[in-house]
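Input (DEAD/DEAH box helicase domain protein):
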Amino acid sequence: MSTNTTTSSLAFTSLGLKQDLVKNLSSLGYEQMTPIQAKTLPELLNGKDVIGEAKTGSGKTAAFGLALLNKLEVKRFRIQSMVLCPTRELADQVAKELRKLARGIHNIKILTLCGGTPFGPQIGSLEHGAHIIVGTPGRIEEHVIKGTLPLENLNLLVLDEADRMLEMGFQAALDNIVGRTPLDRQTLLFSATFPEQIKAISDSIMTDPVLVKVASNENKSTISQKFFKVNNDEERLDALRLLLLDNPVESTAIFCNTKKETQQVAESLHFDGFSVLALHGDLEQRDRDQTLLRFANKSASILVATDVAARGLDIDSLDLVINYHIARDSEVHVHRIGRTGRAGSTGIAFSLFSDKESYKVGLLEDYLEAVITPESLPSLAVLSNDRHQAKMATIQIDGGKKQKVRPGDILGALTGNNGIQGSQVGKISVLDNKAYVAVTKAALNLALKKLSKGKMKGRTFNARHLTN
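Output:
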C-alpha cells in the first residue's frame, strides 16, 4: 500500500476534467478543492484504487463523484459505476450530489436502490437501464442475487462510510456484491475511521491502493464545546431543558446512545411544549423520511436522534448539537459535533456527563488533546420556551412526480389568486406519489385551503398538515 503525501494545485481547472464538468463546477461556485479532493482526485483520475480516511463534511462525495463522472461513457447505456452507502438517507444525499455534479452531462441516469421501498418498481427501473447505481448493501445484494442488477460492465466501485457498513453488519453482503463485480474495476473506499476490518477488506478487494488521510482540524477550531456535569437522570433532563431555553436557535440535534432514551427524551420535551421530533431505528422508513424532511424544512426546531439513524443527516444550518450522554467512543463524539460549524461557520456543541462517564471524558481529553473543565448551567431566570417553537409547518400533498406535480405547480397554487406570499413558502420536496411543502405557521390555514380546494395539473389533491 502506497501513501499519498503531496497536494497538487487546489484549483479544479488543474485536474484535466472533461469540459462539461469544469463548466458546471464553476456555475456551482466550486473553484478550490478541499484537502480530501486535492489529495484523492489526481490519483482517482489516474485510475488508481484509493482509500480515503476523512470525516463527513470534508467534500469526499464530490471527490469520488467527479472521478466516476469523468470516467463515465454516457453513450454506453450500461451500469458503469456503483456507490454503496450504509443508510438510505446517505444514499439519497449522495445521489442528490451526483445529480448536481452531473448537470452539464446530457442523458445521464442515476438510480437509487435502497431498502424500505417496494422492490417491484426498482426492477422496472433497472430494466430501463442506468449508468450509475447508488444504494444500500442489503437491497443491492437482493438485486444482484435475483439477477436484476447486471454488473458485468461495472468499472468503478465506491464504498462510502465503509466503517459504518461493517458496524451495521453488512460484511457478508459486501463480500457477496464485490465478488460478482469485474476484477479489473477501480475501487474507492472512504471511511471516517480505519479499524482492522477495513484493512482486511481493502487488502482483499483493492490493488495497491493509495492511502489518503485528511486531519479533521476544522472540528477543533470552528466548534465551541462546553461540558456540563449532572448527578442523575432527572437532573440530566432538567439541564437539557435549561440549555435549550438559554440558547434560542433554529435547529438543534440532541444525540442519545439508545433508541429507548431517544424516544423518552423527545416525549419529555414535547410534553414541555418544545417543537421536537425523534429519529431512531424503530421508526418505519416512511416516518423516518418525514421526520428528516420536517426537521430540514424547519417545521421542527429540535431533533432527538441515535447515531445510526442520523447517519447521512444533511442539514445545512445545524446551530447546536447536544450530547445527552457522552458518545461511546471519541470518534463518534467528533462525528456528532462535526454536524455543526460546517462551511467555516462557528458551531456550538454541549455535552452532559455524570461521574459514571468520567472515563469517557478522560478518553475524550486524550483524543482532543485538551483539558475538559465542566461549566456552570444557566440559571432559571427569564427563560421561556416560546423561542424554541418552529417557524414553519409542513403540508403533505397526495400527489407527486408520477402525477406530474412539480414544485412550480405547488408554489403557483399557494400564491395565486389571493393566496399566501411567496416569502411565506419554505422548502418544497416532490417525491414519486407525495409532495411536501413548508409554510410559515401564520399562513398554514390559508395554504391548506388553497391546496385542497385549488387545482394542480387540472385536478384536486388531498392536503393535510403533518403533526406529531
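The longest helix spans residues 88-101.
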